[in-house]
Write a structure and sequence with these properties.
Layout (H helix, E strand, L loop, with lengths): L4 E5 L2 E6 L9 E5 L8 H7 L8 E5 L14 H9 L1 H27 L7 E6 L1 H12 L4 E7 L5 H5 L9 H8 L7 H7 L2 E6 L4 H13 L4 E6 L19 H20 L2
Parallel strand pairs: 3-4, 3-5, 5-6, 6-7, 7-8
Antiparallel strand pairs: 1-2, 2-4
Amino acid sequence: MQRAITGVAAGVPFTALPPVEGGPAPLIVTWHMLDAPCSDAAFAAALPMHGVPAWRVHLGMPMCGARMVDGRMDAVGELIREDALMAYLYPFVRQASEEFPAALASIRRQLPVEDGPLGVLGGSLGGAVALRVLADTDVPVFAGAVVNAAIRMRTVVDLFPHDPYDAESERSVDGLDFLAKAPAIADRAPLLVVSGERDHPGLRADAVRLAEALGERGELLSIPGLAHPLADQPGIEPAPQLPIAREVDAGLVRWFRRHLEARR
């Protein structure tokens, strides 16, 4: 099994896993969780997708991994306490989304990835980034997947103490409602919605509703026993894959292999 490649793409740290046979291959880009695993390297260890004949490039989210402040996640906690939506959730998704085009161009220059449509995958808050790529951009995508994703930001905000919404925060939270954007997502690519049966009830309900709203373009994969995280805390460093994460990984491998084979 080939070793991971680490680097930086237009300022965004990444961990890349080459296909088993190496050389030119399709590309799958991922965005990690802010729960464990909360770095690109840790997410690559939790969901390596070794059985997929593609490059899997795991991008780092803002203020995580190599971009942590003072090597800790404490600064993220401070932002949550300041304003969960406007200081943390919304700007993290916006920054990761806005960084993506330049990072993708840099990845294509650095690695032998094919120029065709790519796959996208996001976990938790990283799921909102993957969904935003599908709903709000024209980047060609052959298939997408999300795991315990932030599908409807109002649901996520309710997990934190927060101030009443004002006009700006209303616009921000509504812009990250991907249930409302399900038709646009369905027009772009098939989407696998992976949901832990022990995830937060609101996130679980959103996952079921999104898969239903996507019709034949969506598929729900329920994982018994899976709560929200995919790795043990703190989840910053790569760790051995947990058995429950192995189940998620196997489902992702089946999904992306199926859609890669359909392109041939």
